[in-house]
Amino acid sequence: MLYTRLRKSPYFWKSRAHGVAMYSVYNHTYHPRHYGDPVGEYWALLQGVTVWDVGVERQLEISGPDAFDFTNMLVPRDLNRCDIGQCKYVFITAPDGGIINDPVLLRLEENRFWLSLADSDVGLWAMGLAHAGGWDVRIAEVDVAPLQIQGPLAKEVLCDLFGADVLDVPYYRLREFTVDGMQVVVSRTGYSGEIGYELYLRDASRNAGRLWDAVWEAGRPHGLRPIGPCHMRRIEAGMLAYGCDITLGTNPLEVGYDYSWMVDLDQEADFIGKAALARARAEGVSRLMVGLEMSGEPLGTYNDGSMIEPFEVRDRSGTAVGTVTSACHSPRLERNIGLAMVPIELSGTGTDLTVVTPTGIREATVVDKPFIDPRKETPKR
User: Fold this and answer.
1) Is the pLDDT of residue 258 over 80?
2) What is the pTM of this model?
3) Which of 49, 58, 362, 372 gives a 20 to 30 Å CA spacing to 135?
């Protein structure tokens, strides 16, 4: 595989042909941010079906005789509860409990895992741990690149592409399919809060253009539209973005993921950060990520570059106490919303705060999150 300092997704030229208006860099790779109309893309996601070039989500494969035990050490979730053919949203934690990455984990075989990585490097971390610990594992970035098909008509597109059997893939499960001789792992996952699938194409460097064309032809009758990652929708859903909402300086409890499912401190196996997270549970945390509603004119779409750095949060006395890490104007709610890290004593629903934005100071109130579909029923339909 050819590497450059800034890489192109295997789908780069196909997505670019649709008129990408802005790129960001994600995992050292050019990432389509939007195609000129982020609000229109938002409504297409909510009302129709969309395709996203997410080849930036590098696939780190962990395989070999010790792959299960090694991967179970990397993540706080107990992988004894992860079947072959199942996916899990996981954190990869540091010794102090900080979050290194928050990938989707795919278990393809007893001792073969893919980590579909967010925007931070994990490969060297895993290789160093494997070498230092003498683990019998192979760790490598594989030639696999995902596309996301998201929106209420996603099932129709997938049926036309793979056949009706694709509807048998349950939420957060995966199956192998073939289309036009191409091997594709299809998972019922996504980063939208809507019905969605991710198509993990094997031999992506050779086949990406063919898969894009096949998806496009299957989606054409359903009004398929290419979009960037819809941050307005993911903020509505309370989904976190690595590098802003979560970083190495945050731990799972601070960002609102309690220990009932994302961090299993009762499992027999040890994992990196277990002792630190056990202390955090026992002592409690001093800050918490909350939902905020903010007054004033629309803040923008987030995709449009309207939030290039965190906003300062102040208490009612004007003292700086925290940061808004993601914010946008929700077209559906018709108000400004965001995720913010604030002191635990200011995290209660109904707490009044102020937020310093580039266009002035806004009144803000702590509200429950997710802002929409709090039980996350929509993507499970």
Assistant:
1) no
2) 0.96
3) 58
